[in-house]
Amino acid sequence: MSDTGAKNQPIEVRFRGGGFAPKARRSVGLAVFIFLIGIAEIGTRQGWISSLTLPKPSDVLATFGELWESGLLFKHLIPSLSRLAVGAAIGASIGIAVGIMIGLFSYVRAGMVPLVAAIFPIPKIALLPLFVIWFGIDEASKYALIAFGTFTPTVVATYGAVDNVDRSLIRMGQSFGLSWLSIVRKIVLPGAMPGILSGLRISLAIAIILLVAAEMLGAEYGIGAYILEAGSLYDLERLFAGVVILSLLGVILSTLIGFIEGRLLSWRA
Question: Do the beta carbons of residue 127 and residue 68 sit within 8 Å?
């Protein structure tokens, strides 16, 4: 009887689907950055890498200290952040609204998709002189360029996300007698949110690129103006300090999007 009971006991089988739920391993990414910075520092000190092409990371760090002590860091950073926030907020909010309407209404889709397809491939940086002519060389042209560059990828990502919502869930909601508005609010928007947030990652990266381009034309302060000035003086330490600021800004925005995903998409866990 004891042998039979032992044979009938359930055997625990190891779960094999872990690869579809990746774990956050931030230490690996940090280790990669430290490794690359260490290679650059050793290479420049030993002469393997020419100081004319790549400055020492320690010198770039010292430049950060000088920027902090002199107050120039925030004098350049705050205008850039305000331009990025205003332009990206305008472009992303309008893009999400238009993308949702394209996904929900056939007449809007028929009218807007060809227009979006026509303007999406246009290099937005090439339109900067046109925006300067339309809005002037002050802040309005910078806001407009960043908003326009953020708008088109957000629209494409949003209506694609709406299209990819599982139709069986919509039919299920209809079978339970949910109203159209309830289906949109409880099924369509939550189902499209992962795609919308993924599109925002791309849109914000494009916004940073356009921010730098806009600030290189007619801006006294800003990260783009700082990089342009450092490049014209061939000051590699200041140039790389500006590039690192942009990289950190991209990492912070990506982390922010990840935090929003964790809060809004906790139902996927």
Answer: no
